[in-house]
Structures are given as structure tokens and as C-alpha cells.
DNA sequence: GTCTATACCAAGATAGAC
DNA sequence: GTCTATCTTGGTATAGAC
């Protein structure tokens, strides 16, 4: 077809705009990112940006949507391999850490833009919640598989909430100290203890302390 | 004296401006809060705001500074009462929760504005870090007292980091779901387990977690 | 210290040629 | 789909009377 290249160019421009916008918005936040900054970053004029997305809010929604699908396709398995709890928990935490490490803006976007909800459009608010809900669901399902919690949904919920708050807190810590990383070692210990506290069977390793099962303690 | 009332009026205006600015900035973020919004909220004209603070950045620094001193004077005791670890930990967590509950904007400010560091002035960045450092120090000292960690500073650091990330994560959770609160129960279990994991003596009490405390692992 | 009025500029957004 | 040029609004910030 003769029009394929044209469509291609448009699609690539669209991606370039989203790349620039995502980078800038995750860095400076939505309000502090201007169309001209995006234009300067990606090389296309402001009017092209408006042609693709219609409004600043439209860019915001598209950026979030792309970040969400990228994150979720990077987190395929809700079922976690491993014979016992400790092994599955390690696999889960490794997955979390890898996703965390490979999605530098995704989470900052969710956090930084989530704050702005109050003045954002309905579509933007919906997309933020969609993103958040997907993360919650994945975490709950994965932890449910790790600890075999199919009959204890409220426990799975608590563990997921705990894990996500830890992850959010780490994102926050990273903008004070960019070298901060997820402390999966501490999270491992904490999740085992929480599970044991709710009388979840954590067979195999000795009790919930499980010092034998160290992940990658950095020091 | 005849000038006292004038000084008073100025001081009260200054406070009113800071109240409005703090409220708006913790809600919408620094960039999305305009001088006219602050002016409308507190009733004083924009020029008065500039007379008091010189620039938008000046307001930002003053707001942060006031939030920091307010929070820190609300957290007086670095030493925590209690005969055993579980009791002191409960006292500590109660203190954290009370501070969390009574400082609705303080932490949101620190988080929301912390993100904006990249484009903020040097004074603003310094104030944000000052605030953050004060929080870290208080938490570390308090936990050090709870667990008697004077000779294990790196363990105190890890516990403090864990606690603060949990608190930050809860602040984030609150702007998705305003009814979210600090889960001090889970934090209690997790901190005890982390301390035990580092071979910190957590003698005998069964805390609130009945069965969470029976592992006095030896190395 | 507080007000009215205003300078100045960058923001978001659009028009219309190509 | 992309460009140049432009409109409008609202932003930060200041001048100067009171």
C-alpha cells in the first residue's frame, strides 16, 4: 500500500510524543510540564501534538494508558512457580523488583499524577484508577498464589496492600535518593511474618523468622 | 505601644497566607497552585503575598518550613515509655499514627513537593531535605529506643527506612482512597519480625500478635 | 502593610498553508 | 500529518497611592 509509510510516520511521531511527555511528566509532574517542553524534547511542533492528542489532558491520559499496558504486559504471571511458600515468595519478589527496576517512569507517573486528581478531567481520573486497580489486582492474585490464600481473600488483600505501600514508599524514597532500591529482603521477612500472624500455613522453613531464607541482602 | 497591633496584623496575614498556600499546595501540588488561587483563598491581594514572601518560591519554602517545625514539635519524645519491646513499640506506633492523623498536609507537602525538586530553587530543595532528614532522624532515634539499638545503628536505620516507606506509601494510598489509614497492626508485626531477623533481642512478651512471637532464632 | 492597576510573558490552544 | 503564525488567557511579578 502506498499509505503505509505515512501511517507509520504518524504512529512513530505519536510514540515519540508519548515518550517525551512520559519522561517529562514523571520528572516534573503534570502541571509543571508544558506543551512547549514536550515539543522541544521530541522535535515536533506544538500543533502536531494537538493534532495527535487534542489537549494536554489527552496527552496525560494517553501516557498513563501506555504506561499501564506496558507495566501489565511486563507482569504476565499471576501464578508463581515454586514448591514451597519461601520459594514462591522469592519468585514473586524477584518479579516485583524486576518490574520496579524496568519501569522507571510508570510508577512515578501513577504517583505524581495521582496527586493531581482533584483538578484533572474525568477521563484522567478514570485512567489513573484503572492503572492503580490493575496493579492491586495483580499483586493480590500473585500473593494469593504464593501463600495459597484462595479461601482467605481478606488476608490476600492485606498482604497486597502492604506490598504496594512498600513499593510506593520506595518510589518516594527514590526521588530523595535516586540510589534507593526495593528492600526485598525486609519485605520477604515482613510478608512471612504477616502471613504467620494470620495463621497462614508457612510450612517448611522454621517458623516465620526464616533467616535461613535470605534473598539478596545487599550488605 | 502603638505599633504592636500593626505587627500583629502583619503576622496574622502572614499566617493566613501560609494556611491557604499549604492547603492548596498539598492538594494540587506546587506547580498547579497559583498566586491568584492563594489570594482568592485567603482574601488578601496578590501584592500583599509578594510583600510577605517575595516570590512563589518564597511561599513554598515558608510553607515547608512551617510544616516541618509543626510536625517536629508535635513529635517531642525520642525516648519511648514502656517496660518491654512490645509495649514501647505500641507507644511508638501510637505516636506515629497520631502525628500522621494530625498533620494532614505536612506529609503530602513533603511528598508532593519533593517530586518537584528538579525545577525548584536551591533554597526549596534544601528545605525539603531538611524536612525529610528531620523525619528520618526522629524515626531512627525512636526505634533505636524501642529496640535498644544503640550499638546496632545499621539495624535502626533499616527499621526506620522501612517504617518511613510504609508511611509514605500510606500517604500515597490516601490520595486514591481518602479513608486509608496507617496499618499499625501490620507494621507492628513486621517490625518485630525484622528485629528478630537481625537477632535483636525481643524478649518474651507475646505482644498483640499472640503467635507471631515464638521464634527466638539463634544464629 | 494593604490596596488598585498593570507590565510582561509563557501557557494552552487554533487557523490554515503545504 | 506537519509546519508557521497567531489568538487568548492566565501566570508571576511590580509600581505606587494610601
UniProtKB/TrEMBL annotation, chains A, B:
Transmembrane segments: none annotated. Gene3D superfamilies: Tetracycline Repressor, domain 2. InterPro entries: Homeodomain-like_sf, HTH-type_TetR-like_transc_reg, HTH_TetR. Keywords: DNA-binding, Transcription, Transcription regulation. Residues 34-53 bind DNA. Residues 11-71 form the HTH tetR-type domain. Pfam families: TetR_N (PF00440). This is HTH-type transcriptional regulator MtrR. The lineage of its organism: Bacteria, Bacillati, Actinomycetota, Actinomycetes, Kitasatosporales. The gene is mtrR4.
